[in-house]
Amino acid sequence: MSAPELRPAALAVAPTLAAILAASAGVLLLASGATPSEPTRFAILLAFAPSALIEISHFVSSIIGLVLVLLAFGLRARLDAAWWASLVMLAAGAVLAIFKGLNWEETATLTAFFVAILPFHEAFPRKAALSRMEITPGWLLSAAAAIGGAAFLGWWMFNHVEYADRSWMRIMGDREAARAIRSSIAAAVVLMGIGVWRLIATPATPPVVDDTDPDFDRVRAILAKAEAAEPASNLALLGDKRFLFSASGESFLMFGVRRRSWIALGPPIGRHDERMELFWRFRELADAHAARAGFYALGPEDLPDTVDLGLAIQKTGESAIVPLESFSLAGRRREVLRRNWRKAGEGGAAFEVLPAGAAMTVMAELRVISDAWLAHHAGGEKSFSMGGFDPRYVAEFPVALVRSEGRIVAFATLWTTAHKASFSMDLMRYSDEAPKNIMDYLFVELLQWGKAEGYTAFEFGMAPLAGLDDRPLAPIMSRVGRLLYERGEGIYNFQGVRRYKDKYDPVWQPRYIAAPRRWAIPFLLADIGLLSSGGMSGLTKRPRPNSAGRPS
């Protein structure tokens, strides 16, 4: 293969390789600073180099070694600043190796590392400053272990040198030992300083942002013009999320926290060019807080980014999307749907959409319908990954109403997007007096309304656990998920949800969860369920029997 064909593969492995080289160079410099120089070379060096330069070279080299160990973390995270800093540190270390004791092998090794990293600048696209690099407790422990290992190596060598009983060599050895001790202590003090700085500088867990917080207006402004946004991005307005904002303030990533789980809901929202930086910042911030990072409700277009982040991926179900341009009630396949829609209309059902904010005028009626609907369904109001009935939240969106004989009998809140790529429905609730086929009537009217408004697609939402494989070589979580899908109708109407949405001939797209380690995914899914249901009390709340005898 030619060099241009190999370059993409080289760029893919460059961050990991550069991190290994930087860490190796750091350990090399720490070990070199803690061990005695070769006597003959050192005697030659003393003949032309002042002792102050030798002392400074030893002292600074050990600090450079520690810095390189820590920079390996930034290289692994593809930080542009870490690439530049590593080149400077490698070059400085190569020069100082000469003045420590004519260590030309060390100089050659550091120069080779410099040359190996130099051609791959484009593999480090992240522009975040080094001061924003979240050094994790594990990385600090690794650096401390490197310093401790180098110090132990130095102690062992100074107690086993062949010239320990020769008088002038003993004097030189004592000076070397003092120099090595100073170098190791300097590196340890710098590491302690970095550890203290990390405790002070690492941001606290971002607080929950609700409608009383000034940042809530920033969220609204970003949603109003976002290039990258899905209908479910509007869950940011629920008032229970935490946010990471981009440096420009034009993008954000929303997430929830439950104990050790930090769960990002969907990909970053806002500008396309700021997505990857927010992905990385979230993972690093969670890691710095010793938390489990998870990314929930990701789509196929997000998979390349999750691969770059080094995450394990698990499919959680499929989402139904109906292209509005091709949707029609004509044909035999739509006969039942067409009949249900027509019967509801002939029975007096009427559809309208109130603009955002206008629902406040009918909020009392909507509250009665919502309370009646909730009484017939398991669990209470939802949160996090699903909307709940809150007057302020409902008023954020357009609201579709169905009236029968002038009375509201059903409503749905609509999630819209800035560029009208797609829209969806959040809350959909109806009263006991609603026509029997109210859901079919409402969905058909919504599809026709969206098409008239210029939207290209309607998102029907998730069919949990749909599309998972139960093959002998499939991942164990896929096989368990498939078993639940086929046998778990008593827990949730998995197959019924899929069949109902299939009536509209949607395009099914997979949805995923991603985490740094595959074993963490079951814990993250459990925490997502608890976040969405309001804890164990919400999960165990049972519905009241439907007095009208209608299916709920």
TrEMBL record:
GO molecular function terms listed in the Swiss-Prot or TrEMBL record: aminoacyltransferase activity
InterPro entries under this entry?
Acyl_CoA_acyltransferase, LPG_synthase_C, PG_lysyltransferase
Q: Which residues does the UniProt record annotate as the domain Phosphatidylglycerol lysyltransferase C-terminal?
A: 220-514
Query: What are the record keywords, sorted?
Result: Cell membrane, Membrane, Transmembrane, Transmembrane helix
Q: Where do the TM regions start and end? A: 43-74, 81-99, 139-158, 179-200
One cellular component term from this protein's GO annotations in UniProt: plasma membrane
Q: Where in the cell is it found?
A: Cell membrane
Q: Which GO terms describe its biological process?
A: phospholipid homeostasis
Q: What is this protein called?
A: Bifunctional lysylphosphatidylglycerol flippase/synthetase MprF
